[in-house]
Fold this protein.
Amino acid sequence: MSTPPGDAVKFPLIFGLDTFGDVTHDADDRPLSHAQTIRNLVDEGVLADQLGIDFFGIGEHHTDDWPLSAADVVLAAIAARTNRIHVGSAVTVLSSDDPVRVFQRYSTLNAISNGRAEVILGRGSSIDSFPLFGYDLADYEELFEEKTNLFAELLKGGPVTWEGNTRAALHNQDVVPHTEFGPFPAWIGVGGSPQSVVRAAHYGFSLMLAIIGGSPARFAPFSRLFLQALKSFGRAPLPIGVHSPGHVADTDEQAREEFWPRYLQVITHVAETRGFAIPTKESFMYEVGPRGALYVGSPETVAQKIAAYLPALGANRFDLKYGMGGLSHDVVMKNIELYGTQVIPRVRELLA
Amino acid sequence: MKRIAVIGAGHVGPVIARLALDAGFEVGIAGSGSPEKIALMTEIVIPGADARWAAGAVEGADIVVLAIPLHNFAYLDPALVAGKLVIDAMNYWPATDGVEEIFEDRQATSSEIVQRRLPQSTIVKSLNHIGYQDLEDARRPAGSPERRAIGVAGDNSDAVEVVEDFIDRIGFDTVRLDSLTAGRLLEPGSPVFGSLFSRTEFEQALRVKAA
């Protein structure tokens, strides 16, 4: 299953950074406040822009160690201090949000940023938003299906008429602010469900493959499915992206030493509710190796791996989910710097 | 044994279907509705499998794998799988999937409740405790030192044996648990849930948990 999707269209290569707003630690390894974490995050986005990175995304979470519940506000602050970088969610947990509000917030962000807003929709494998906002996890499918449908209608612009079970109906409703230049880019984040791939194609959203564990190669059929499904719905090809976690430092050893204890701690913490195995050093080394999902290492190691998987997956975009709770802000900034100055140019060179 | 039916076309079902195809079985797969809805997915992601209505997939199958979200289980018609050997690959996992009234009886395991609601089927609990991504990556031929184990729990020892043979053929060692009650050791919260253990490590983990 490693043959690349044959009729993939050449979209420009895009390189992004995603964060869940992982709480960073100070020099004495004490967690920084949520407020300081958020201010640091704005600086991280600004640095990414200075380095010429294409996209900066924030994944909505609602927990003590991932306090980024209002990603769009942080993105607006980044937008106000930058001119070039695209800013977006990674992901917006649409099932537990109101599509009208999501549209309004990101359309506003699009206005502030002069057309640099994007949105990646998904359930998010973090499900804290369901009880918080009074949604039943058992309704997940219907919530996501209906809200995706409404969001697609809203993105078209113009008055919306919509009816469903999960929110109030809209009758010829104008939803503002209007976008200046048509719909902003919208993606659906897909973990492992092929039917979600078909859904993304059905609504004409781009596909973001969230590959956070195991072999990236097993996602290749999803890219083929996406392109075939677009075709069957009479749509033109759309971009495909890959989102994966990683960490870049000067050397492989340093990157692993910095990342491993934090990764172990975070995954152990979420293992129970996500059904993850608690990682061992051995499983970690597999994940950072050529067949695993983690992009941890020197700039060369990480660049080689990205350059290997983008074509194998028929993808034109790579978003590195950087940071891991407990790393320091300095280490995280260094990761961003190496990604922007060394990894991305090297991948471009390898794929030229 | 040559035909497998997979009921469920979400994250898990297509992966099990692919493993069964690779092991040489004929595979029918059904989603929650018409075969047309999953036809393209089947063609590209599990080439070789037949997309069917659930009844068509089950017909003639030696094993039926139930891999639907547990909150949809209440809508499954027991007649559909009457007389069949059914692998229950589902989990009751309220923290992740929400609370389901019929599975709130904590005296019984989720597979015992499935068995109660499918009285004319023979239920074996298996394939539920391993991540779908691991299922695909971790399979190894018999005898490989890297082989991992999957638990198989059931009240009917003949049925358990058939399922163990199936699991072996798709690439895993098995660890037998002699009842659906004992299948609690495979449920969310158990040390083997989500893990990737060799048979020895698996047995060791179960002994610690059971003690």
